[in-house]
Amino acid sequence: MIRIYGEFEGDSSLCRVARGFAQVFPEAAKFELAKWGNDLDDSAPEQPGATSKIGIYVGGLSHIHASARSKHEKIYVMVAPNSNTVGALVRKKLSGVDRLLAPSRWAQGVLRVAFPEKEVLCVPHGVDPGFRRKQVTRIPHFSVLHLSSSILERKGTDRLIEGWALAKLPDAKLLISVPAGRKEFFHDIASNFGLTPEEVSITDRLNYNVERMSALYSSVDYVCQPSRGEGFGLVPLEARACGTPVIATNCTGHSEHMRGAGVVVVNTGEDSPIDDFPGALAPSLSAANVAEALTTAYEKQALYSADARASAEAIRKHWSWENQLKEFKNDITT
């Protein structure tokens, strides 16, 4: 038997990953970290699978101690680094873990250097089968959507706003979704670059379900994720599964999938300091390079849109959870 540790209820990226693993391992016991992560009684009936041979941990590392209380022969822990190494706190949390899962080959390389004594498997994320193009009313401007789960530099939100100001695209609107309580922070950045709310709309983070997110992706011309550091980066891949072209970096975890039809690449530079933790590095990102990619996307919108729609079915098939976890499933069940 297998037990999966994760956050299964909700619509965050972590929740989508947990449900993806549960889809591939339908007989596995599910340990809901949001409910039981801090509970010390591992014999409760709501927590089956405590003695499963294999444990797979795909939740936030703040609850990693929950897996240590169980009696698994093997425990695999998903770790998604956001820079060139991992910080002291993460190292401490993983001190008793022998097997790590990396969501991209780039992440696998980072973890192998950080933890040379541990086994590190590359197990890329997949896309929920519900992500597909919807017939919706489209936003009446040239529209670009950016989703951020953080105010840290790694998401590239600040450079995107500056790049939007530099690009000066006619009749265009940038839609930004940010963590709750952080709208004013990004409003100030936009204002400092002379951008009005009509040019840049900033809302609280939209953790919609798959159906609503598919409709949102389908309503815009592009999704833009100019990240400096991603363990994988689900958002642009979900957008492509809906037939919406993307503007994104193809460094760090994005290098696993940001290529091919419907992708406008934002070029990055040499590694430079990033606010992941002291000493962390990630590819540098300039507003000028973001503006260049935005301009290319604007001028070739029809081409990129047609390519993205034509390749959506192939994206859904190749990046299905079943396909991405096939090798890992064979390894642990045979």
Structure description:
Helix 6 (157-167) packs across helix 10. This protein folds into 2 domains: 2-127 and 320-333, Rossmann fold; 142-318, Glycogen Phosphorylase B (Rossmann fold, 3-Layer(aba) Sandwich). It is globular, with a radius of gyration of 20 Å. With 334 residues, it is an alpha/beta fold. 35% of the residues lie in helices and 19% in strands. The model has no long low-confidence stretch (mean pLDDT 93). The longest helix has 18 residues, at 301-318. It is built from 13 helices and 14 strands.
Task: Write out the CATH superfamily name of the largest domain.
Answer: Glycogen Phosphorylase B
Rg (C-alpha, Å)? 20 Å
The CATH class of the largest domain, by name, is Alpha Beta
Biggest sheet descriptor: 6 strands, parallel
The pLDDT mean sits at 93
Using the 3D structure, state the CATH architecture of the largest domain.
3-Layer(aba) Sandwich
**How many distinct beta strands?**
14
Helix content: 25-40%
In CATH, the topology of the largest domain is named: Rossmann fold
- Placed side by side, the strands forming the largest sheet appear as 2-1-3-4-5-6
Tell me the fraction of residues in β-strands, as a range: 15-25%
**Terminus-to-terminus distance:** 12 Å
Which series of helices and strands comes N to C? EHEHEHEHEHEEHEHEHEHEEEEHHHH
Q: What form results from the Cα inertia axes?
A: globular
Return the domain count: 2
What structural class do the secondary elements suggest? alpha/beta
Our count of helices gives 13
- Which spans have pLDDT < 50 for at least 5 consecutive residues? none
